[in-house]
Amino acid sequence: MATGAALEVITPGASVGVGSLPHRDAQAAVEFTIANFDVPVVPRLPRRSGSESLVAQAMVGAAGITLGQYGTVAVDIDRLDPDAAVVTGLHTENFGGFRAFVEHAPHLLEEGRAFKWQFVGPVTLGGALVRAGAPRSLAFEVAERTVAAHVSALGALLASALPGHPQLIILDEPWLADLMSSDFPLAPDAAADLVSSAMAAAQPYGTVGLHCCYDADWPPLLEAGPQVLSLPASPRVANVAGYLERFLDGGGWIAWGAVSTDGPVGVTASRAWGALTDMWCDLVKRGIDPDLLRDRSMISPRRGLASYPPVVAADICRTLRDVGRRVRDAACATKLMLST
């Protein structure tokens, strides 16, 4: 299947998950994500097991790294080796949601429907290794090789289990929000190169993208070459309108974090839609084509939903799909006006 196939079947305004879900039952999580998102996400279930945290999942099978019962990390510097083989242990607690998706999704997903999965990016993983005591240069080299090995293994497994379903593969890089800080351990171009390397490992299996749940310095991140950019629907993105215009013109899509998941949920679809269209108006004023903006946009929560009860997570999903319908209605109305 072509690596860009996901963007051929995803419709404008499609709702898409971010990653984590609140369920303790893995099969229930798979059923939830397929029923509640237009583009379902392979679930991570940190409430089911602390080992399913974003970073702990990526450290499975890496030499010199030991994971504690609750996702804690210990690094043996003498054994840390970027050239050592990395074994993706799907049998471990770290991949419970992933195993359940591989088992149940082939029976639940409609033919040809795209799905999404996220994996931590090498910059965020390298930062975690530095904080655990690894030398800086070694930490990022190990992170690069480890992420590439896992992404390749997981992408191949999903391609085998769901051969008729395009994959949308997103690298999750929350640490890139601090990229321009004076004490950040990598130069922007070095960070972009690390992300680009991980994307290259994912490219044979699907459409690749980049997610950061915070406001970040987006121009150097776009240099990494994502096909999809997943970012908060924040007024600050108007400051990089020119870069986003080139990204969209080049065929890129944006997954807008249109519903905040930073605290208590009280945002209605009307309020979320109003905030999104206000931001889009600013982008249009700065030169972005409004049709292109609508036609290449997905709608997502700002972060994962693990911190909410399942019933609240379902309410958030309904809000996302309502906002998505408004995106599609606006796009259709524009096309009708242009055709008359």
Structure commentary:
- This protein has 340 residues and is of the alpha/beta class.
- It has a single domain (6-339), classed as TIM Barrel, CATH 3.20.20.210.
- Helix content is 44%, strand content 12%.
- Strand 1 and strand 2 form a beta hairpin.
- Helix 5 crosses helix 6.
- The radius of gyration is 19 Å and the shape is globular.
- Mean pLDDT is 91; it is low at 335-340.
Strand order of the largest sheet: 3-4-5-6-7-8
Mean of pLDDT? 91
Q: What is the domain total for the residues? A: 1
Largest sheet: 6 strands, parallel
The end-to-end distance, rounded to whole angstroms, is: 37 Å
Return the structural class.
Answer: alpha/beta
Please tell me what the overall shape is.
globular
Low-confidence stretches: 335-340
Beta-strand portion reads 5-15%
Number of helices: 12
Give the helix level as a range of percent. 40-55%
* Total number of beta strands: 8
Give the SSE string. Answer: HHHEEHEHHEHEHEHEHHEH
Rg is 19 Å
CATH class: Alpha Beta
CATH topology: TIM Barrel
**Proper CATH architecture:** Alpha-Beta Barrel
